[in-house]
Amino acid sequence: MSVVSLQEDISVAYLGPAGSYTHEAAQERFVGNNFAYKPYASISDIFDAVESRRTTCGIVPFENSTFGSVVTTLDCFIGSKLRISAEAYLPVHHNLLSKSKLSELKKVYSHPQALGQCKKWLATHLPGVALVEVASTSYAAELAKEDPEAAAIASLMCAELYSLNVIERDIEDGKNNTTRFFILGGSTSTRTGDDKTYFLFTVDHRKPGALCDALKVFKDHEINLTKIDSRPSQQRPWHYAFFVEFQGHLEDENVQGALEKLKELCPNAKELGSYPNQRPKEDTY
């Protein structure tokens, strides 16, 4: 993961409390005494903090290699004016933390993503135990600290911070489990020659082939799509926003041509930012 180190003070909003994987990603991405890490209770709170300039920037989980997209982050982008300035990757190893023994557990707290990334292990080793979704893995550790019948799926950092025992290490289903994060700010990154861009658009669902027409624009301009998602548009029922990530930068000539055409075709179209490609070299599309 590349790091940022600046001379002036910068505040970084992350999904708290302390010990979350987002906190860990923030510490790896922003290195030095000039950075103040500020915890927030939800992903939407991070967006609000950056938009209102209570923090300089924010870091949010975007997708996991095992369990897919973080839909809360996608939903926040729909109404936001923030831009993505960078991405970061963090290998994630989940641990079962508790003050009790495995046989004494009646519930497991964690973020929905963490529960999903460990579902095979949980089904095998804790069948019938209640799985309780909470706002973050570190908040799960806080709850497990006060509940003798509970455990949390969280980081080893949380075991130390919240005085919990490590019942089992590395319980994630995918041993190459990795989470990708976006760095949020008011502007996008400059062109490097190896960049990706994130873009949001809607189509007229009443028109046959409207989505196909929009996606064909990328092919016509020789742009390689690397990811696509859809979410309710928040405009009206059964209407969707589409998110696409592709190789290239907003300053590239072919990208500019494609986005101009998309803005002609699509009722709503929004550039969410360009950022240097940080995908580990051993990972391929």
TrEMBL record:
<dbReference type="GO" id="GO:0009094">
    <property type="term" value="P:L-phenylalanine biosynthetic process"/>
</dbReference>
<keyword id="KW-0456">Lyase</keyword>
<dbReference type="GO" id="GO:0004664">
    <property type="term" value="F:prephenate dehydratase activity"/>
</dbReference>
<dbReference type="InterPro" id="IPR002912">
    <property type="entry name" value="ACT_dom"/>
</dbReference>
<dbReference type="InterPro" id="IPR001086">
    <property type="entry name" value="Preph_deHydtase"/>
</dbReference>
<keyword id="KW-0057">Aromatic amino acid biosynthesis</keyword>
<keyword id="KW-0584">Phenylalanine biosynthesis</keyword>
<dbReference type="Pfam" id="PF01842">
    <property type="entry name" value="ACT"/>
</dbReference>
<comment type="pathway">
    <text>Amino-acid biosynthesis; L-phenylalanine biosynthesis; phenylpyruvate from prephenate: step 1/1.</text>
</comment>
<keyword id="KW-0028">Amino-acid biosynthesis</keyword>
<dbReference type="InterPro" id="IPR008242">
    <property type="entry name" value="Chor_mutase/pphenate_deHydtase"/>
</dbReference>
<dbReference type="InterPro" id="IPR045865">
    <property type="entry name" value="ACT-like_dom_sf"/>
</dbReference>
<dbReference type="Pfam" id="PF00800">
    <property type="entry name" value="PDT"/>
</dbReference>
<protein>
    <recommendedName>
        <fullName>prephenate dehydratase</fullName>
        <ecNumber>4.2.1.51</ecNumber>
    </recommendedName>
</protein>
<dbReference type="GO" id="GO:0005737">
    <property type="term" value="C:cytoplasm"/>
</dbReference>
<feature type="domain" description="Prephenate dehydratase">
    <location>
        <begin position="11"/>
        <end position="186"/>
    </location>
</feature>
<feature type="domain" description="ACT">
    <location>
        <begin position="199"/>
        <end position="277"/>
    </location>
</feature>
